[in-house]
Amino acid sequence: MYITCLDLEGVLVPEIWIAFAEATGIPELKKTTRDEPDYDKLMAYRIAILKEHGLGLKEIQDVIATIEPMEGAKQFLDELRTISQVIIISDTFKEFATPLMKKLGWPTIFCNSLVVSDSGEVTGFKMRVENSKYTTVRALQSIGYKTIASGDSYNDLAMIKASSSGFLFRSTDKIKADNPDIPAFETYDELLSAVKSAMN
Predict the structure, then answer these.
(1) Tally of domains in the chain
(2) 36 is annotated as an active-site residue
(3) pTM of the predicted structure, to 2 decimals
């Protein structure tokens, strides 16, 4: 029995922080897990910038409400779910992901949560589990599933490498060059075909 594990941002929806950076005119917030492998360091950096500019959860959610899934993402997900169980494993937060899950037809997502003050200030975050993507894939394998994984960033590499089949999707040239053993795809049709082949 297979479960396909997908990253969210950069694979199915645009990068939330990049969209927020563009909406607010704060270019420092464009840094993502494609640029910074240390997620704790990245989030501390983001929270400090939010505090500096007096921005909170509401302002981020207002931008997220305008984000649409990538072209073809929902159709890809719908077709993928006819041949495989699918879990989205993301380092984003439930406070960000819920409206996007609605637009994608409510797929299952495992993600994290923010710590937000009564005033709406983002003061911290709670990871669901350490090394969440790798840990989740290993947990699924421990209960008898074979995993297929795909993502675009540094924080996806562990789950991709730990899976029976793994693929990069719309990743950076550097990540692809540093991981030449991982097949890399640019279109949903290619990724869907790869998943189908991996299951045969």
Answers:
(1) 1
(2) no
(3) 0.90
